[in-house]
Design a protein that fits this description.
Blueprint (H helix, E strand, L loop, with lengths): L5 E2 L13 H10 L4 E8 L7 H14 L5 E9 L12 E5 L2 E3 L24 E3 L4 H12 L3 H12 L2 H5 L3 E2 L25 H14 L6 E4 L1 H4 L10 H9 L4 E4 L12 H11 L3 E6 L8 E3 L12 E6 L6
Parallel strand pairs: 1-2, 2-3, 3-4, 4-7, 8-9
Antiparallel strand pairs: 5-6, 10-12, 11-12
Helix pairs in contact: 4-6, 8-9
Length: 317
């Protein structure tokens, strides 16, 4: 594989993306894409009209079926019950929030639209919304100890497979979203190389790998100038390889121009970590393809969904 021409983590104006879904399809065609997965947000911070979204993606699947394979997915947050995206062909299991200690959300996923935040008694701590609020909540619930908060983040992340039954796991270490900011701006609250940070992350990864779900190498924060390192950070990605985990590469594109943003860097990082291939989510495979049925998918637009391996070209080996 010399150039990766597929992306399955894509946002539009239905949630917090900059472009209409059809404009994204047209940009994908311009870039020579063969596969495009839409993954609108369903979380307490950024939600959408799922019915209208699904109808539009279905329309685009029909309109462009002879030119590009479009998949209708959703990025579902760990706090919600997966029934809120019934009919999605695939889902990304993501953790944008940590339930506060003692919240019922730890044991029971919430129905979509449940009042989880915005009141005097917050039920959730958002890890990628507002840095000031993150610090306030860390002080309120953890006495300002970000290592304790990050340990709970990974304890919750370790549940994503059983709570959401996703097709793949999104931006595994999103807890570090603001960590690259200067201390004056609220960053540098975690030493990402310390055992106190890494061990809970590694335990969560060890809990998730047996489910056989790929972890995405997420390029979104790097593409938008928010972070220096891709998710997962290099040491965690190498640990994933040692555990026998699988990967796919995602742009987490919020602008159509960034549909393939960071792919070269992601392939280099994957090679460094020991991976020789990525995975593509496809409807059909040839007789010679190394492929396997994709777990937790509902391909009602036609055909079974498979993970097809795509080996990195010699440049990356």
């Amino acid at each position: 594989m010399r150039n990766l021409k597929a992306n399955y983590h894509t946002h539009t104006t239905f949630c917090d993306g900059s472009d209409a879904a059809e404009a994204v399809v047209q940009e994908a065609l311009r870039k020579g894409f063969t596969h495009l997965g839409f993954s609108g947000h369903m979380d307490p911070g950024v939600s959408m009209d799922y019915v209208a979204y699904a109808q539009e993606i279905c329309r685009l699947q029909v309109a462009y079926r002879d030119r590009i394979d479009i998949l209708r997915g959703a990025e579902l947050d760990n706090v919600y019950d997966p029934s809120c995206v019934a009919g999605a062909e695939y889902t990304i299991g993501s953790t944008h929030f940590v339930p506060v200690p003692g919240s019922s959300v730890w044991s029971t996923p919430a129905a979509f639209g449940t009042h989880l935040e915005g009141s005097e008694n917050w039920d959730l701590i958002g890890v990628d919304g507002d840095i000031g609020m993150l610090h306030d909540q860390c002080r309120q619930y953890y006495g300002g100890d970000f290592y304790a908060l990050s340990a709970d983040y990974y304890r919750f992340e370790a549940m994503v497979a059983t709570r959401l039954h996703p097709t793949f796991i999104g931006h595994f270490d999103l807890i570090t979203r603001f960590n690259d900011l200067s201390r004056a701006d609220g960053g540098h609250f975690l030493d990402e190389m310390s055992e106190r940070y890494l061990l809970p992350a590694q335990r969560a990864m060890e809990a998730l790998v047996p489910y056989g779900l790929p972890f995405e190498i997420n390029c979104g924060a790097v593409n938008r100038g928010r972070k220096r390192e891709l998710y997962p950070r290099p040491e965690l990605l190498r640990h994933l390889h040692a555990l026998g985990g699988e990967i796919l590469i995602s742009a987490d594109a919020h602008q159509k121009e960034l549909l393939d943003g960071g792919f070269e860097e992601a392939m280099e990082l994957a090679r460094w970590a020991g991976f020789t291939h990525t995975n593509l989510l496809v409807r059909a495979v040839g007789a010679d393809d190394a492929s396997r049925p994709a777990k937790n998918t509902k391909p009602d637009a036609g055909g079974t969904l498979y993970w097809r391996t795509a080996a990195f070209c010699p440049k990356f080996i």
